[in-house]
Amino acid sequence: MQINSAAQLGYVQLESSFGVIPNAGGTASVGNANAFRGISLLTNADQALIERPDKNSSLSATVGIGGRKSGNWSISASIAGNGAAGTAPDIGPFLQAAFGKAPVVVPATSVTYGLEDLSPSLAVYNFRKPAGASQQCAFGAVIQRMRILLGEDVARIEMSGPCKWVIDTDQFATVGADHKGGLTTFPSEPASPVTNGGIAPGFTGTVTLDGQSYGTLRTATIDVDFGRDIPLDVYNNYFGVEPGQNRRVVNVEFSIYDDDSANLSALKRKALAKTPVDLVFTHGTIAGNIWTPTLKNVLLAAPQYDDSQRRYAVNFTGRAHATSGTSKDELLLALT
Amino acid sequence: MIYRFIGTETEIAGVCTLTRFGQSVDLDPELAAEAVEGGAPILPEALFSSVGFTAGELDRFAEIGSHFDAPAEFLAKKKAALLKMHEWRELGSAVEGVMEEQEG
């Protein structure tokens, strides 16, 4: 039977220990409460091929052997809050793993994700239909990259990274325990998955650049490289071990219509003078579905002009920075 | 048991789709607990009623888009309902914790 790519839900859980899928006595604890919707969800195992490098009597290659094992995963999802202010969205575990710590919740008001120098890991289930299709779980999944894209009809968030391994129902019965993330059986998809929240038009919200409100933003992209990776070089171990993290890189690019206002002129001057500015992009207008990423101390590159449309546009790129060596405040995401 | 919806859009696959503020839904409490764990913004009927929404308000503001320019009085009630939901969730966790302690 064919497998339709649009009939698919994902399920995500935070792991307590790297590479251990949440379970009780080997039985997975994934349930209806862990579901999320996405535009795309991919989970792929990978194994290096080791070819013998020695010379031989001809130029024909001989069969190699299997090398180290790893995996990768990615999601793209519409930006959708829970719908009720003060409740985390369905993709909350991804955001928590991305930012590195649990959000601050103010009941009935907000859920705010701030940065921490930690690398929580996830178990990401990829259940497809029919049930006989290969069902997968990427475990030991860490978030290496996150992008927030605003301005088109549908605002999106994309996340991706490496994982320890992707176990699936094709291999489960034949591989060793080290491939199974602590499970003794692969779970079926929960029967009544719960998903929450609707989308808001991707071009609605407010924009504040260096303290000034703008109504001429076209698009904005926040691109975060969390610098996380799973070391894959431990002796006598095919798999990766607990992740390491490098310095974060929080980049932003945005396109705005050019004008002769004093505010925009000042922003251009600050870009040219490398004067830090704070940028706030609010997406959505209805409480319960408003996302506000705030970037601090952004050093903008020289503005780049664009005459490809009827109106002149000016494009900015920049990188956000923490206020101090300990503040970790270059990016904050508030859901209200 | 009857619950009322106070979010924008929630689906419990194969069971119900909730899209209207104040929408009523009859759920098995066990499934409701799981839905709440999954973030479903629902409130038991009695708690919802205690907020004091009028029939007119629920009719006028059933569509979430209408909340953008809703009067302060309605938004205050909505916030009260959200706070009740939060307290109810916390209470549920506390009760569960006590039961676990007793079983242990």
What does this structure look like?
The complex is a heterodimer of chains A (336) and B (104). Chain A is 6% helix and 43% strand. Chain A has 336 residues and is mainly beta. In chain A, the strands form 4 sheets. Chain A has a 15-stranded antiparallel beta sheet that branches. Chain A starts with 7 loop residues before the first strand and ends with a strand. The mean pLDDT of chain A is 97. Chain B has a 3-stranded antiparallel beta sheet. In chain B, strands 2-3 form a two-stranded antiparallel sheet. With 104 residues, chain B is α+β, with helices and mostly antiparallel strands. Chain B is built from 4 helices and 5 strands; from the N terminus they run ββββαβααα. In chain B, β2 (10-12) and β3 form a beta hairpin. The longest helix of chain B is centred in the C-terminal third of the chain and has 32 residues, at 72-103. β14 of chain A pairs antiparallel with β2 (10-12) of chain B, so a sheet runs across the interface.
Let me know the average pLDDT of chain A: 97
Interface with most residues: A-B, 32 and 31 residues
Residues in β-strands, percent of chain A: 35-45%
By secondary-structure content and strand pairing, the structural class of chain A works out as mainly beta
Order of helices and strands of chain A: EEEEEEHEEEEEEEEEEEEEEHEEEEE
Structural class of chain B: alpha+beta
Question: Cα-atom Rg of chain A, whole angstroms?
Answer: 22 Å
Contiguous low-pLDDT stretches of chain B (5 residues minimum) are 96-104
Radius of gyration based on Cα positions of chain B? 15 Å
Q: Give the distance, in angstroms, between the N- and C-terminal Cα atoms of chain B.
A: 29 Å
Q: Could you give a short account of the major beta sheet of chain B?
A: 3 strands, antiparallel
Instruction: Estimate the mean pLDDT confidence of chain B.
Output: 89
Helix content of chain A: under 10%
Distance between the termini of chain A: 43 Å
SS elements, strand count of chain B: 5
Number of strands of chain A: 25
Question: What is the helix fraction of residues of chain B, given as a range?
Answer: 40-55%
Largest sheet data of chain A? 15 strands, antiparallel
Q: What are the low-pLDDT stretches of chain A, counting only 5+ consecutive residues below 50?
A: none
SS summary, helix count of chain A: 2
Number of helices of chain B: 4
